[in-house]
Design a protein that fits this description.
169 residues; mainly alpha; 5 helices; 54% helix
């Protein structure tokens, strides 16, 4: 198997988990937060929906400098559940296509992540992808599940049964 084929196995599971969680995001609770320091629900949902596009940038770009962005800034304004799902689907399609086309050599190449002159990391692209995209997506999707629970919305079974539904394949 190529590195891309291995990444795509995990990718498809995580995109499905994120989609099933976003499908339950309530309309009209955009500003709800579980704590003053927490991200509002609507912004969190859009952040989850936008992350696959960031994943595609890791695969396609030679690196990233946050102080000098070359990609447009994503808006984190929640418009609707359907708009959120559309954003996820668009980004997920672009990211999946980028992964599928990536060679083992490209995926093993260093991916410098900077803020101006400060080098934050410069490990293999696969490490950046797993840490800054996969782990980031899993973290925020799980956080969104907590938001659902606190709003009495059934939490989907993602890695096993939830208190609300059995695990199904």
């Amino acid at each position: 198997m190529t590195i891309a084929e291995i990444l795509l196995q995990d990718y498809d599971v995580e995109i499905s988990n994120t989609r099933r969680t976003l499908e339950r995001v309530p309309e009209g609770k955009n500003d709800w937060k579980c704590h003053d320091k927490s991200m509002p629900l609507g912004k969190l949902a859009v952040h989850c929906a936008s992350l696959p596009l960031f994943g595609s940038y890791i695969i396609l770009d030679d690196g990233m400098n946050l102080a000098k962005p070359t990609r447009p800034q994503t808006s984190f304004v929640f418009e609707s559940r359907e708009a959120c799902l559309h954003k996820l689907d668009e980004g997920a399609t672009a990211c999946r296509k980028a992964i599928a086309a990536a060679s083992d050599e490209a995926l093993a190449a260093p991916w410098p992540f900077r803020f101006g002159d400060q080098l934050i990391s410069n490990g293999p692209r696969t490490l950046a992808f797993r840490q800054m995209f996969f782990n980031h997506l899993v973290h925020h999707t799980a956080q969104l599940g907590v938001y659902l629970r606190l709003n009495d919305i059934p939490v989907p079974a993602l890695y096993g049964p939830s208190a609300d539904e059995q695990w199904s394949s």
